[in-house]
């Protein structure tokens, strides 16, 4: 099946196998996967091609989250999907509270300083191991990564389709 960004959203990246019985590490993007009811029907693959997969078990020990998928009985089977992404259908996402959002909701928002100066548009959102970040395309075409942290992002105003960023932080990023 072909991946469609208007219908599917990535929930996690699959890591290396753990042990010999078909477990693997997963690196979730947010809480949707870890809060899901099991078994959970998902899609696995790359943005070019995805196929159906069923998550049957998920457990964590400290920062390590391990997953078990139906039909994956050994480390060789799991190794075939290492570094692939787990996707779900967008309509399966749980609703968010009024002051919450999904990262995909941020793409296309205008970025402004606290003084109202337009700074650019969010083109992509990244979930790095140490922090999340938004990529902002400036009017001159330059792309800048802005850390998505409390000290950087003053407000996310979805209804107004904009993100307010601390002015002094932006100056440091250039």
Q: What would you note in describing this structure?
A:
There is one protein chain. The chain has about 170 residues and is mostly beta strands. It folds into two domains: about 10-90, Elongation Factor Tu (Ef-tu), domain 3 (Beta Barrel), CATH 2.40.30; about 105-174, SH3 type barrels, CATH 2.30.30. The chain is built from two helices and twelve strands. It has helices spanning about 75-80, 165-174; strands at about 10-20, 25-30, 40-45, 50-60, 65-70, 85-90, 110-115, 120-125, 130-135, 145, 155, 160-165. The strands form two sheets. Strands 1-2-5-4-3-6 form a six-stranded antiparallel β-barrel. A six-stranded mixed β-sheet has the order 10-9-8-7-12-11. Strand 7 (about 110-115) and strand 8 (about 120-125) form a beta hairpin. The radius of gyration is 18 Å and the shape is elongated. It starts with 7 loop residues before the first strand and ends with a helix. The mean pLDDT is about 90.
Helix-strand blueprint:
Blueprint (H helix, E strand, L loop, with lengths): L7 E11 L4 E6 L11 E7 L2 E13 L2 E6 L5 H5 L5 E5 L20 E4 L4 E10 L4 E6 L5 E5 L5 E5 L4 E4 L1 H7 L1
Parallel strand pairs: 7-12
Antiparallel strand pairs: 1-2, 1-6, 2-5, 3-4, 3-6, 4-5, 7-8, 8-9, 9-10, 11-12
Briefly, what is this?
The chain is 7% helix and 47% strand.
Terminal CA distance reads: 41 Å
Spans of at least 5 consecutive residues whose pLDDT stays below 50 are none
Counted up, domains total 2
Q: What is the element string, with H for helices and E for strands?
A: EEEEEHEEEEEEEH
- On the 0-100 scale, what is the average pLDDT? 90
Task: Return the CATH topology of the largest domain.
Answer: Elongation Factor Tu (Ef-tu), domain 3
Query: Strand order of the main beta sheet, please?
Result: 1-2-5-4-3-6
- How many helices? The count is 2
Number of distinct beta strands: 12
